[in-house]
Fold this protein.
Amino acid sequence: MKWFVPSWNGDLRLEPSKDGKSTLVGIVRPTLHEKNVLEALILEAKERGWRVQSKKPLIFRKAVYTLDAPFSEVAPLAVKLMRPGNQVLTAVHFKDGHVETIQASETTHMLESPYRGDDIAPSKNDLTVAAKELEARSEKPDAAATVKRPTPCCPQCVPGAVKEATEVLLSFLSEEEHRIWSRERRIEVVGGLSGHRYQIAHRHTETARFQGRLCYDLDDRFTMHFHDTSVPPEEEVLATKLILEHREHWLRNEATCFGQTNVRYKNPFGNGGDGLADAGWTIQVGIGMQNELARLIMSLLFSAFALLFAIGSLISVHFLTLAIRSLGQRLDIFSEELALKRK
């Protein structure tokens, strides 16, 4: 089984060795933050007495390390370092097509009922315990992915895509979803709580541009407002799919629906203001850029008017000089004619 953790240029990939005694850890073109996470993982591995071997150091496009420890111990540690916090979901895909989800233990206090005023006792799901249980099963999973909840906010869709991200997404699509995705770069999923159908589109497609955002409720006919531009578009689609199917209340609440439907749930991470800090930062950046652009345009207009005035002044002086010369020539001719008449 491969365990994927979405990153900016692809994924942190974890895979058991053939003998099951060690774990391969790979990452494609890591960012500075991801390098720090990888270094923290290696440091923690050495403190636990795990031998670390490097197949490809970070100077190459893809760094690959071998940790002499079981997959069930390395994978949860790497995932917790790469995706800390309480808005994280791990999905495990089995060969028969069914998906099971795991929430890290630090988020168990969030596992209350998504319905308002109907709290229930949370159920504990520790990532390390779950990984060992998966390893002991006779039915082996073929892929796992750990995704974080998209941010409730409203940025516009922008260009960019990463090849490695497609492999992760396709690992969790059915044959029918795969066919639709390959043709139209969109999929349809059903909410795990509401039963509503959602259309999720690649953020660079005309579908996403027409919807305004990547996710659209096909039953209530409105756009859902959230995003995660910290990962490639394919992995943004994957996170949205897994969360809507298995933790729908994370994304269907007052922070993302904007009062466009009565079918919404309690937001386990805040209220209607969830994501406003991110939105406020985006707005401030947008306002700053607009102000700078306005100043630049005004400066260019002022320069253009000054140039036109200077050119106009030069033309006026030139014509005035010609007029004075012409007048002087006429006066000379008149003086000569007057002198001849007197003679």
In short: The chain has a mean pLDDT of 78. The chain has nine helices and twelve strands. The longest strand covers residues 141-148.
